[in-house]
Structure formats: structure tokens, C-alpha cells
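ok so for the tutorial part 2 we go from a plain amino acid sequence to predicted C-alpha cells. step 1 is just haveing the sequence, like this:
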Amino acid sequence: MIDELAQRPGSGRLAGRVAIVVGAGQSQGSGPDDHTIGNGRAVAMLFAREGASVLAVDRDEASAQETVDLIVEAGGSAAAFRADVAVESEVAQIPDVCAERFGAPTILHNNVGIGTGDGGVTGLDREVWDRIFEVNVTGMFLTCKHVIPAMRAAGGGSIVNISSAAAEASASIAAYKTSKAAVNALTHHLATANFRHNIRVNAIMPGLMDTPMAIGGQSEAMQVDPDDLRASRDRMVPLGRQQGTAWDTAYAALYLASDEARFVTGVILPVDGGQLARVG
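step 2 — the prediction. this is what the C-alpha cells look like for a chain of 280 residues:
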């Protein structure tokens, strides 16, 4: 199933659309033999495979360009742009660059998120808390602030925000959990504020995913073998005892960005193998 999702041919579900994917680069994996793909890169590649022109935005321009190269190699249309979501002057350039390269954006996908240094409240440094909120919440606010006017002028569109199952499930990482709950609230606000502008706004809450950021970052922080970490995470997933992949997130994003979801807005969609079903 994983290989099938990664290699499934496109069917033109986003033909003629212009998509901005923020966080389209990729974190370094857990080792030289780790060929897993991150959520942002998978989304950018899938959107392009389905016919969209993609502006791949990332703080790491080289990584964004790697994503673009993969898209172009597969016959898609994409360009890279460097911007740090925590710097408003850089974010403000995104819609203009998009318009110059491809035209007005009709899709915005917000994928950036961090959790480095997080932990319980009593041992958490204020600087870590502030930085996680700056990136995870303020960064998303800024991209929406500057892209939505262009989307309204274009007659509407779709915004997909990446949250996390940690927003609702038990989690020991206070800042990350709380920031993702704020993403859910921001998504709901944006959805209701944009009804009359024909802009749909939804969020995805991925659960345990086998991505470079999740496995590489955590295995290093915990000083455990990446394969051991994968095995322990697999055992925690109710559905099939196997983590999801970035392609599971990407196909959910594709649905929400496409006309198939034309009557769907304000939804916070778990893509988690049943983790939150246990909570509810």
C-alpha cells in the first residue's frame, strides 16, 4: 500500500490550480539509508502530480529546490522560494512571487512545525515555548494573513493547515501540544471568516508518521536506534500496528484541496490510524 500510494499516477484533480506549499523542503533523515519522505515534500509532489503548479516554500532553499527538482523530473511544474515563516517581511513576498511565477494562488498548504527542546511545563525554557509558538502558530497566521487577500481576489480557494493528533491526545510535550491546539482554533476562525469569500479552510491532524523529522529528530534526541523507535511507534498505532507515512497526509491534503471537498470547511481531520478514536 505504501509503494502504491507513492507511485500512483495522477488524474488531474488539481489541473490548472496554483498551490503554495509552505514547508516543502525536508528534514534530514535518521541516517544515510533513510529514504522516507516528509509531509511537505510529499504534498508538493502529489499536488504537482495532480496538475497544480507548485511554489515550494521553505527556510532551507536547497531542500525546497530538491523538491522542485523531483517534481520537474516527473514532468510537473514547480519553483522554489526561500522564506522563514517567522519573519513577516519574507512571508509577505510569497504571494507576489507566486503571482509572478504561476499566477494567483488558489491553494495554500501550511506544513511548517517544530518541537525541538519541548517537554513538561515545569522544566520548559521560556525561549523554547516562545520559539515553538512563533513557528507553529504565528508563522501560520502570517502566511494566511498575506496569502488570503490574493486568494480572495482570485475568487476563492482552499487552505489546508497541518496540525497534530497531539492537539487532542495525551502528550508530554507541552508547547507543541498547545501550539497545535491553537492551529485547530485558528483554522476554525479562518473558515468562518472566509465563508463569503469562497475560501475553504481545514486542518489535518497526523498521528504517528514515519517521516524524517519524526524518526530522525526523535531518535537523536532520545539516543535510540531509529529502527527500534519505528518498532515502538508501530506498536502504538491501533490500525494495523503500523505508522502512517507522508503519503497518507498528502492524500488527505489532496482531497481537502480539491473540488471533491467543495462543501467541506472548518474540519479538523485526524489521519492517525485510530489513535484519537480511543480518546473519543
